[in-house]
Specification:
Strand content: 25-35%
Strand order of the largest sheet: 4-1-6-5
CATH architecture: Alpha-Beta Complex
CATH superfamily: Nucleoside Triphosphate Pyrophosphohydrolase
Order of helices and strands: EEEEHEEEHH
Number of domains: 1
CATH class: Alpha Beta
Largest sheet: 4 strands, mixed
Length: 147
């Protein structure tokens, strides 16, 4: 199991990191990570946010978006012959403060992307298909609640 974080700033942009490790190495993706065996979800959330964005984010301020399945041909260890299957808990947070000194263990670079343009994000930068599905599904929910 893992957690993905849809982190938005005050302009509704989504934080993306350029992955430096498998799976999804070389793709832009949201911050996230694995939940360790016997680790409570709230504790994993805080650890992952600290490791991925350099700030311990508050679990009780996050909005749960749903459960997703991410399937990859490769695995984090780089061993041939088997892929990775993550069951992912996706949470969204609105940041009220800037992030400084983003960690580089998992991402070579970071950027803020306008979520309204996720339908064509792959035209401009190499994003993994999983992130587009998550963000677009959430945008569809937001559009339905307005209309």
């Amino acid at each position: 199991m893992s957690i993905d974080l849809i982190i938005r700033d005050g302009d509704s942009r989504v934080l993306l990191g350029l992955r430096s490790n498998a799976p999804a190495c070389g793709y832009w993706f949201v911050p996230g990570g694995r939940i360790f065996k016997d680790e409570p979800v709230e504790q994993a959330f805080r650890r992952i946010s600290r490791d991925e964005v350099g700030a311990t984010l508050a679990f009780d301020e996050a909005r749960f978006l749903g459960v997703y399945a991410h399937l990859y041909q490769e695995n984090f260890a780089g061993h041939p012959g088997f892929g990775t299957h993550y069951v992912v808990l996706v949470y969204e947070l609105l940041l009220h403060r800037p992030l400084r000194n983003l960690p580089t263990a998992q991402h070579n670079d970071c950027l803020w992307w306008m979520s309204c343009s996720f339908s064509n994000v792959r035209t401009f930068i190499p994003t993994h298909g999983h992130i587009s599905l998550v963000v677009e599904r959430d945008q569809d929910r937001a559009d339905e609640s307005v209309g």
